[in-house]
């Protein structure tokens, strides 16, 4: 990173944002960057391409480096080649950035000082001049003026206008490129509602806030909000509503009804309101009313996600583990994952025996041929290990392996069985299952038979080689076998390496060249063990002659003495 030089990004950040293609194309535009201006947290420039494009890098955004460009590709929300060119230009001149940012801060302070020293008439004249020039500024100030004079009707009309997505829509939908403009306009709603609260009209602010949430929710389905503008506005509206409620001290019963209704609606995804934030506003009676309304809603729809989530939040806040379990386990997952959540909650409450009971129930109650959740198996095995129930641990691992037939499950069974001194018998049964899978195979393995991996993991190399020779295995497994057995089977290993190398010779790319080079080193080692170095020299010469146009491959071979 170049943070010590004044910018906290580097070429890797630009490449990650733009992608390899746009990054490389951006390198060709370094001489097209003009009019670079550095501010406090932003850098702008004009980049000349098909047209003169205005670019801006935001250095201190919530997600780190970001950028905008008014080229067609940038308008779709992409980090384009023009932004790459600006970023690379900044990195070249990064030593000057701290000084330029410092100058920007100084200019801001000097502007503040100048404005503070103007007479009222001069300041008003300046503001009127800007209002006449900037229509967006005029609209914002008109809205603030309506809020300040308490004209709720005017404010409501303007809020509806600001949250109307129609002016930004094309064919009934606001595309990604236009969503930001809509979001910038919609942010004005938050500030004007906050101003109403500050002006001593929190009841009106509260009402308008609720209406604004509804309008924003209605607009959401017609907007590509990939960047999350609406969610951030919804969250800000939620904060403004809470502030208004804190100032207005509304009726607790009415507030409880609104809060529960809101939390059970689709709008909650947009605003992210936490009911616990309203504890002071609601008071004791209001909190009890929220709990009552939430419980009624949950009883009517016990499997509803919103009802369940709200109840879990409320009972968790009360420390009611039994209540949380009662809510959470109404709809038990077939794989036992719900049982596991209950067990962990009881563990946290210091009730390990009940936790163990729930976990064991999870294993017993898995149904419809569904294998138990791996996390549940691991949890229960850990508990059995800690209390010395090793026999039960082996039984559980045996069942898990029988259901999964994976190398990881085989390794876990081995560890458990070795702890009780019974691995020999368990291994025979496990390998018999894997051989049966091999005999019943109807289609090729995606990553090779687990039997070969298990034998390799056990170090039973000759058995693994025999299985591999008698069935179809993955190249990954052949390579592992050749690597581990070339000291005792150099001729067989050489055949494997040559076959794998031939498959790569017609391919390109640095990753392929790395693999091919490693295989050739192994081929050389096998020839050395067999005393046939001359054959390798002939083979390598022919390969180099046929692949001489691949300069990166030739360079790698030279580096490794091939």
Commentary on this structure:
The protein has 29 helices and 4 strands. With 562 residues, it is mainly alpha-helical. It has a 4-stranded antiparallel sheet with strand order 1-2-3-4. Helix 1 runs antiparallel to helix 4 (81-92) and helix 2 (20-27) packs across helix 4 (81-92). It starts with 10 loop residues before the first helix and ends with a helix.
Short description:
The protein has 562 residues and is mainly alpha-helical.
Mean pLDDT: 87
Helical/strand content category: mainly alpha
Could you state the oligomeric state of the chains shown? single chain
Biggest β-sheet strands, sense, barrel = 4 strands, antiparallel
Number of strand elements: 4
Q: Name the overall outline.
A: flat
Parts with pLDDT < 50 across at least 5 consecutive residues: 1-5
Estimate the helix proportion, in percent: 55-70%
Spatial sequence of strands, sheet with the most strands? 1-2-3-4
Strand content: 5-15%
Radius of gyration: 34 Å
Give the helix tally.
29
Distance between the termini: 37 Å
Features:
disordered N terminus; about 550 residues; single chain
Summarize the SSE layout with pairings.
Blueprint lengths: L10 H8 L1 H8 L5 E6 L3 E7 L3 E10 L2 E6 L2 H4 L5 H12 L4 H21 L2 H14 L1 H14 L3 H11 L13 H23 L3 H19 L8 H20 L3 H12 L4 H4 L7 H22 L4 H13 L3 H8 L8 H12 L3 H13 L9 H13 L3 H15 L2 H13 L3 H17 L10 H9 L2 H10 L4 H11 L4 H16 L4 H21 L2 H14 L4 H9 L3
Antiparallel strand pairs: 1-2, 2-3, 3-4
Helix pairs in contact: 1-2, 1-4, 2-4, 6-7, 7-8, 7-9, 8-10, 9-10, 9-11, 10-11, 12-14, 14-15, 15-16, 16-17, 17-18, 18-19, 19-20, 20-21, 21-22, 23-24, 24-25, 25-26, 26-27, 27-28, 27-29
């Amino acid at each position: 990173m170049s943070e010590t030089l004044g910018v906290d990004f580097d070429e890797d950040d630009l490449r990650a944002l733009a992608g390899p293609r746009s990054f490389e194309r951006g390198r060709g535009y370094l001489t097209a960057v003009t009019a670079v201006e550095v501010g406090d947290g932003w850098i702008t420039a004009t980049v000349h391409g098909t047209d003169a494009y205005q670019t801006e890098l935001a250095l201190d955004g919530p997600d780190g480096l970001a950028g905008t460009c008014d080229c067609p590709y940038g308008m779709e929300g992409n980090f384009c080649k023009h932004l790459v060119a600006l970023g690379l230009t900044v990195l070249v001149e990064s030593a000057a950035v701290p000084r330029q940012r410092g100058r920007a801060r100084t200019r801001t302070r000097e502007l503040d000082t100048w404005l503070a020293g103007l007479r009222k008439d001069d300041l008003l004249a300046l503001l009127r001049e800007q209002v006449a020039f900037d229509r967006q500024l005029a609209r914002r100030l008109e809205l603030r003026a309506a809020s300040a004079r308490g004209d709720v009707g005017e404010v409501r009309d303007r809020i509806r206008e600001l949250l109307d997505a129609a002016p930004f829509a094309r064919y009934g939908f606001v595309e990604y490129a236009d969503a930001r403009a809509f979001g910038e306009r919609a942010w004005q709603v938050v500030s004007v509602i906050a101003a109403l609260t500050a002006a001593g009209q929190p009841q009106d602010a509260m009402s308008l806030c609720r209406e604004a949430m509804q309008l924003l929710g209605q607009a959401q389905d017609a907007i590509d909000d990939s960047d999350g503008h609406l969610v951030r506005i919804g969250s800000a509206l939620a904060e403004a509503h809470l502030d208004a409620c804190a100032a207005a001290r509304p009726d607790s019963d009415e507030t409880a009804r609104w809060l529960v209704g809101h939390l059970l609606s689709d709008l909650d995804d947009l605003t992210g309101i936490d009911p616990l934030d309203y504890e002071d506003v609601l008071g004791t009676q209001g909190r009890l009313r929220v709990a009552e309304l939430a419980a009624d809603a949950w009883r009517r729809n016990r499997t509803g996600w919103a009802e369940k989530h709200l109840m879990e939040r409320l009972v968790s806040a009360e420390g009611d583990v039994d209540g949380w379990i009662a809510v959470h386990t109404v709809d038990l997952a077939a794989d036992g994952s719900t049982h596991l959540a209950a067990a962990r909650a009881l563990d946290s409450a210091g009730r390990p025996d009940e936790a163990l009971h729930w976990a064991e129930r999870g294993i017993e109650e898995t149904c419809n041929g569904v294998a138990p959740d791996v996390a549940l198996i691991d949890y229960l095995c850990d508990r059995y290990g800690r209390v010395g129930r090793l026999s039960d641990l082996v039984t559980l691992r045996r069942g898990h392996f029988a259901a999964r037939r994976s190398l990881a499950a085989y390794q876990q069974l081995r560890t458990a069985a070795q702890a009780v001194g019974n691995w020999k018998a368990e291994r025979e049964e496990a390998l018999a299952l894997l051989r049966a899978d091999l005999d019943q195979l109807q289609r090729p393995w995606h990553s090779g038979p687990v039997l070969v991996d298990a034998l390799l993991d056990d170090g039973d190399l000759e058995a693994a080689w025999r299985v591999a020779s008698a069935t179809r295995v993955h190249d990954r497994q052949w390579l592992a076998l050749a690597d581990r057995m070339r000291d005792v089977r150099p001729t067989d290993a050489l055949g494997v390496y040559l076959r794998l190398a031939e498959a790569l010779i017609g391919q390109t790319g640095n990753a392929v060249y790395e693999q091919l080079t490693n295989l050739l080193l192994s081929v050389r080692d096998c020839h050395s063990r067999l005393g046939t170095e001359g054959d390798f020299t002939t083979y390598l010469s022919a390969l180099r002659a046929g692949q001489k146009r691949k300069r990166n491959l030739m360079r790698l071979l030279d580096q490794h003495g091939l």
